[in-house]
Amino acid sequence: MVPRFPTRGIVRRTPRPYAAIHQDYNRWGCKLQEGLYKVEFHTVHGTGTGVIYAISGKLRGGNSGFAFIGNYGSKGEEIHVKISTQRHNHDPALKPLFGTDMITLTLKGTANDDMVDFEGTALQLPGVAFKAVLTRIGD
Questions:
Q1: How far apart are CA 45 and CA 43, in angstroms?
Q2: Poorest-confidence range of 11-20, 70-79, 87-96, 121-130?
């Protein structure tokens, strides 16, 4: 019987079993362990903190003023992140770190045990450096 739809040229990404991966990597081959992290971030404009949850290549989190929504993956030893902010609390006392409520960051980082150091920039403000440290809290 001939298959109804040819499978030639279709690539399916199937997670590898844990046993086939070095212990420092999650099942998607990324050095970022899945779980809950506290995040501390810095720019020339100030600092901030929040929490973020990493699971299945997705990042979800926030703080008292902003939600953080993004994704992550690996290229070699580096962890690559693209994450956006969205204001959920319109209290004027909560100032956005970059001066605008919605921003998209592109980051590169390296894992060291339960901590990950990231550096990058905002797409909307390419000259402003951004640094963040993620510290794993738990699963």
A1: 5
A2: 11-20
**What number is the average pLDDT over the span 7-29?**
41
- Dihedral of the CA atoms 67, 73, 77, 81 (nearest 10)? -30
Cα dist from 84 to 62, 67, 101, 103, 124, whole Å? 10, 8, 10, 5, 11
